[in-house]
Amino acid sequence: MLLYICVVLVVIGANTAQDLGAICHSNTMQHTEDEVITKIVQAMNTDFDSVITRKEVLIFFAELMGIQLGSLIDIVANLSNEQLLMAAAGLSIEKESFAQAWHARFHDNLDFVYATFDRFDVNKDGLMNALEIEAIVNKALIHGDQNHDGKLETNELVSYLETIQALPRPWKLILTRITF
């Protein structure tokens, strides 16, 4: 019933098919947005220290892009953030490949993944690159670092990403008024 209402409200109220705010999150494994966000952050935290670094975020996206770093991970671990960003600056993934890789790993519906991609494709060139990923990290540090220690702890990144996904959506505002 809830999914049906979301679909109807999207059809009625969506400005564009790729507007994240107008697309209901759905997942073929029936995972909620919060569950998917938690899985993403856990996948990023490769050293299990409860702190998400720029390197971990870039490594996560490199793997999502299909770039197998293998033994290069040790080299990447020794680079400064600036060196890492310069080395990764030319790496990018196009929208369709990103959506397919994301769907295969996290099982979100493709329309939702496309809209998420569009939200973070800052220059709207249809590619996600290291500079745009760095912008995500910078925004997360600015708005998500709750204890202001200059680090993103896993719980802070989860909260920040949940906040992004919780931005007002026409269907969400209406659904909060519906009782079942």
Automatic annotation (TrEMBL):
Keyword terms: Calcium, Signal
Superkingdom per UniProt: Eukaryota
InterPro entries registered for this protein in UniProt: EF-hand-dom_pair, EF_Hand_1_Ca_BS, EF_hand_dom
Name of the protein this chain belongs to: EF-hand domain-containing protein
Any one GO molecular-function label of the UniProt entry: calcium ion binding
The keyword Calcium belongs to this UniProt entry's keyword annotation: yes
Keyword Calcium: yes
Signal peptide extent: 1-17
Domain spans labelled EF-hand: 108-143
